Write the structure tokens for this entry.
Amino acid sequence: MTVFAPASGYPAQQKQKSFVRDLLEVVVLALALYIIINFAVQTIHVMGPSMQNTLQNNDFLVASKISYHLHDPQRGDIIVFKPSNDASHDYIKRIIAVPGDHLRIAHAQVFINGHRLVESYLPEPWTWSDTWNQGNEDVVPANSYFVMGDNRNHSTDSRFLGYQKKDQFLGKAWVRIWPLSEFRVFQPQSDFAT
């Protein structure tokens, strides 16, 4: 086997080509990361009390913009969406019922497919607008979701806005990054009474 020893120095032209190639690689990598991050995630600044105590006013979150391209939204997910009747503001709420669910809300009790939803995340007793659709059962239409804020007494949600379509969803809340002392990765919460 023949081994060639490199010359002790590179000609100036080779050094320049190497620098340009390295710089180009860094620029292409940074651009690729920027595109992937912009496509995949979004930062969210929470404003208002509608999701207390799960989320507080001025929390900062990272939302996944690709989650719902990979799978359907799940009951209990916290989502960011643009409601059909108010395109000027983004909303953040929890999915309560998914397409095909039989939903009934009466006297501050939510029933999904005949089972009472246990909502340990509610910050206080729910007293305002605690009955929906006159307490009658409704079937969630295809590609539609019923969403509510955790702070039911202070939330504009599907009780007033109606069902929300999947194509209005901007992202799924993934992690709270601020304040640091409240760092949290969000998991869907959807428990039923036994």
Notes: The helical segments are 12-40, 67-70, 158-161. The first helix runs from residue 12 to 40. The chain is about 20% helix and 30% strand.
